Amino acid sequence: MQSADLKNLTIAIVGAGYAGAAAAKALSLLGADVTVYEQATEIREVGAGIGLRPSSMQRFREWGTFDAIADVSSPSDYFEILTATGEPIMKEDWPGMDDYDVKTHTHLIHRGDFIDALVSVLPDGMIKLGHKLDTAEDRGDKTVLTFTNGTVVEADLVVGADGIKSVVRKQLFSDQEPVFSGEHAYRAVIPADATHGLATDDNLRMYIGKGTKVYFLPLRHRGDVSFDVTALCPDSTWSPEATRDDLLATLDGFDERIVQIARDIDMSTVNLRAVYDIDPVAHWHSASAVLVGDAAHSMLHHQGQGANSAILDAGALADALRDADTVAAALAAYQAARKPVTDELQRISRQGWTEDEVDDVFPGQKPTSQQPATH
């Protein structure tokens, strides 16, 4: 689109998480009039650590936000997968480090530090807190948003970045519900010196046992380690109660040092969630509304690609708006570029457990996430 057209474009982004904040940065650099509407009264991210891949870090470099991210993260060279008792299975360099003119590492970062860094590079006043979306109405070349506080917004482009339970997706594109994976994820941040020597550098390690995966993701810039345990469990309660006995049961047969971490951990610091994703959504856009991030393609965390996909969505959407003649054409180009990639990531992210492991916990059946996806 022509520069003058982009500057006249009003964009309303619903949600100020990774996808919404990244889209706000990328789209505002085009010169568009961007406002982000967030339902929470403060922006905060709970949980633990994630890895930002080289492709994401390259986008931050393009947007002039690389230093803000690098200042609160640690570069990592490789990841390692081991058995429950520590025997090596594989060790691989992070892919993509040499794909750019400047060598770009994967960066390990705390989720809270990441969202704080993203928000810090947005202009003051761009994010409007306390705006919970009630309705989204597609009027062709405009989309109208009504919020529960009475605010009504008409925009040339609405970007639904409102997560796995997206209101924009449900009202405009698909009413399918999130899908339970048959897993629970325990997440906590612990001091590096509480890992009994298991966190020795800046590289991710994953220990795999029967039905359980344990992730150690160092956060050297904090002096901490993200300690994540993903275990098969048939309880689909969205936010179950985290008990030490249940956590220890998932770690039966693991290295005694890992078990000791679970014995010592302050359970009040452990975030426990049932793990959900969504089936692929057939259409992400109309002429004036589009989905990004988890709203478009929420995926399980086995590939570590949820946040990275949101960043790449933001970049691809901005590229499409810059290059296409109209908003509608841009949204079609964006979906054509990103949907095949995320469809595949959703598919392979569901392959978290072997047939034997699933049968041990769900005899004679498979958890919903391992059924064939419906399109």
From TrEMBL:
<dbReference type="InterPro" id="IPR050493">
    <property type="entry name" value="FAD-dep_Monooxygenase_BioMet"/>
</dbReference>
<dbReference type="GO" id="GO:0004497">
    <property type="term" value="F:monooxygenase activity"/>
</dbReference>
<feature type="region of interest" description="Disordered">
    <location>
        <begin position="349"/>
        <end position="375"/>
    </location>
</feature>
<feature type="domain" description="FAD-binding">
    <location>
        <begin position="10"/>
        <end position="345"/>
    </location>
</feature>
<protein>
    <submittedName>
        <fullName>FAD-dependent monooxygenase</fullName>
    </submittedName>
</protein>
<dbReference type="Pfam" id="PF01494">
    <property type="entry name" value="FAD_binding_3"/>
</dbReference>
<keyword id="KW-0274">FAD</keyword>
<keyword id="KW-0285">Flavoprotein</keyword>
<dbReference type="InterPro" id="IPR002938">
    <property type="entry name" value="FAD-bd"/>
</dbReference>
<dbReference type="InterPro" id="IPR036188">
    <property type="entry name" value="FAD/NAD-bd_sf"/>
</dbReference>
<keyword id="KW-0503">Monooxygenase</keyword>
<keyword id="KW-0560">Oxidoreductase</keyword>
<feature type="compositionally biased region" description="Polar residues">
    <location>
        <begin position="366"/>
        <end position="375"/>
    </location>
</feature>
